[in-house]
Design goal:
The protein is globular. It has about 140 residues and is an all-alpha fold. The chain has one domain: Orthogonal Bundle (Lysozyme), CATH 1.10.530.10. The chain has seven helices and no strands.
Length: about 140
């Protein structure tokens, strides 16, 4: 599936939380998709939004979803729902999408630790998400 097709395919489920920046979420999904929807990456992340099993399990409990195991992360609807909830939590926690995306990629403890000692938060991942967004917007306007 190419990026534009994925952008269109995942658009609808992302409306569950209108307070998040929809294009940024969709760009995040496109970037994460490159890791493979059904694969498990070296860090143990799974599915479209590349979630850790323990993180997803905690989110499912918070959302009142029945958790039957990590295999749920290979269901795109469940994965996107949980990934959006996680990104929403991180955005609320850190106050901006760049820091939230950095925390999504590197972990919230890493971002908090950097902030606590007034060190710059690496924004390479969030820059990549914004680059994907720009590319998608260019393709969609053709």
């Amino acid at each position: 599936m190419n990026d534009v097709a994925l952008f269109a395919a995942v658009g609808t489920p992302l409306t569950a939380d209108e307070t998040l920046d929809r294009p940024a979420l969709e760009s995040h999904v496109v970037d994460q998709f490159r890791g493979g929807m059904t694969g498990v990456l070296i860090g143990g992340t799974m599915g479209l939004m590349q979630l850790q099993g323990a993180t997803a399990r905690g989110l499912a409990v918070e959302l009142g979803l029945q958790w039957t195991g990590d295999e749920l992360l290979f269901d795109p609807d469940v994965n996107i729902l949980l990934g959006c909830a996680y990104l929403r939590q991180l955005t609320d926690r850190f106050g901006d999408q760049d820091a939230a995306l950095a925390a999504y990629c590197s972990g919230p403890t890493f971002v908090e630790t950097r902030r606590d000692v007034n060190q710059r938060i690496p924004l390479g991942y969030s820059d990549r998400v914004w680059d994907v967004l720009t590319a998608l917007q260019g393709r969609m306007s053709v």
